[in-house]
Amino acid sequence: MKLKSGLKGIFTSFATIVIPVLFIVAIILFFFVMGNPQNFQGNNPANLPKPGNYLGTIYKGGIIVPILMTILMMVITFTIERFISLTKAKGKGSISAFILSVYQQLRKPDIDAAISECDSQKGSVANIIKAGLLKYKEIQSRNDMDKDQKVVSIKQAIEEATSLELPILEQNLVILATIAPLATLMGLLGTVLGMIRAFAALATAGAPDAVALATGISEALINTAFGISSSAFAIIFYNYFTTKIDKMVYSIDEAAVAIVQNFVSHNK
């Protein structure tokens, strides 16, 4: 229990540290790289970007851009973090092949061999199944419990192991789920601010301010692009990871049923 709580704390600390760091990185990139005077005509950030200079163009997206850059970098960072974590949770090799191997050992029945398969596979799925097998082995020869009590004990061991492992699998997914609508809303806010600037340039007496008009349109389009792309990536990867977790949980449930049925069939 302490080990799992410690791991959860590590992941939580990871999120609370990474998000401010990414925001600081975005601010530095925005003002010192994209806002570099060399990116603009007359070496003045107040002017239009030089033709073909994308850094200067992004800078003209306005103050919402660093926030959207932070959101985009969060998507990339937590996608990599979840991919690494779920790969470790999966263990070595195919989960389907591992489950099949456990089935084969249970049919014999050879509980020690099934436990060895879990030790070889490693990962969250193997840890949960191993917890059920260890309980199976522990209570198999006990005479102070009837068969129904033993079955309940095995189920409880698997459920407890699952309750410890599952939060680690789902850690930080809520961030991706939150980013999906947040990125769209922030992009929309930047678009509205850009359009306000564009219409303000059109409303000036006499000839419209071409620089202000172009800046306003750039701000609107850049924020829209950042918001939509960040939201799209967040949705895609969130669905990808939840699908992988669902498959792992299904494999765990399938193996749990097999362990209980095997126990019942061999302990009549």
Structural description of this entry:
The structure is a single chain. By secondary structure, this protein is an all-alpha fold. The protein contains 9 helices and no strands. Helix 5 packs antiparallel against helix 6, helix 6 (123-139) runs parallel beside helix 9 (210-266) and helix 7 runs antiparallel to helix 9 (210-266).
Question: Topology, please?
Answer:
Elements: H1 2-34, H2 54-59, H3 64-90, H4 95-107, H5 111-121, H6 123-139, H7 147-170, H8 173-202, H9 210-266
Short summary:
Helix content is 81%, strand content 0%.
State mean pLDDT (0 to 100 scale). Answer: 84
Biggest sheet record: none
Proportion of residues in extended strands: under 5%
> What count of domains describes the coordinates?
1
- Poorly predicted runs of 5 or more residues: 1-11
**Cα gyration radius (Å):** 28 Å
Helix count equals 9
Number of strands: 0
Structural class: mainly alpha
Anisotropy-based shape: rod-shaped
Helix percent reads: over 70%
| Order of secondary-structure elements | HHHHHHHHH
Distance between the termini: 34 Å
